């Protein structure tokens, strides 16, 4: 189990990244479109985008479900403020995925793209989604599993024993939690996606500018020394491929049904 996530740190990290997020989140946007293709075909009336971030998926959801009332929810106030500026036609709510402030059986569908991996307890996320969905409703989500950013983890392991990269639950642990959640699994796909960068600065800056740098309670404190950074750069360069420096993501895409 990964370290306890400091929720204030999560919210601040993503709030600070709000204005830069879309420009640097090409990979997240690609995964969003993949996840949208998993959404059920039947029309929905009440849809929640959980962890909506800058609101990128809201108009895409609206195109797919034109009669739906779509609500964007996020833990980061800065993200919500930016989303409201960019997409004022939608409604928004400040919300913690592990303690949703919504009524029982309020939604026909909950959509969540690369958000719930920042939560401490995935089983609690599932329980909250189950509570807030109507019978026959769907939870369509993507999350990250262990193996994500393995190149960075392996490179830092050659430098020191500190945790520089976020830890994620194993695929087996995630699937076990889904199996005991009460949901019926309609689709559950695991794949490795790779994002390539021309150099180390591009790779690390892309993570910082989308708010996804290390934000667990167990992260190394203080500044990393120039010597350590140099050693890290040398180690990560050993992973370089023809396309550039790889950042691998182990992605779980699911469509879950709350039984009638």
In words, what does this structure look like?
The protein is α/β, with parallel strands linked by helices. It has a domain at 7-147 and 167-195 and 248-257: Rossmann fold (3-Layer(aba) Sandwich). The protein has helices at 7-16, 18-24, 26-36, 58-64, 77-86, 122-132, 150-157, 171-179, 200-209, 226-237; strands spanning 46-50, 69-74, 91-94, 107-113, 133-144, 184-197, 245-257. It has a seven-stranded mixed sheet with strand order 3-2-1-4-5-7-6, with helices on both faces. Helix 1 (7-16) packs parallel to helix 5 (77-86) and helix 7 packs across helix 10. The longest helix has 12 residues, at 226-237. The model is unreliable at 1-5, 17-24 and 213-223 (pLDDT under 50).
> Main β-sheet: number of strands, strand sense, barrel status?
7 strands, mixed
CATH topology of the domain at 7-147 and 167-195 and 248-257: Rossmann fold
Residue share in helices? 25-40%
Query: Could you give the order of the helices and strands?
Result: HHHEHEHEEHEHHEHHE
Number of helices: 10
State the fourth-level CATH superfamily of the domain at 7-147 and 167-195 and 248-257.
Answer: Vaccinia Virus protein VP39
Q: How many individual β-strands? A: 7
Straight-line N-to-C gap? 32 Å
Strand content: 15-25%
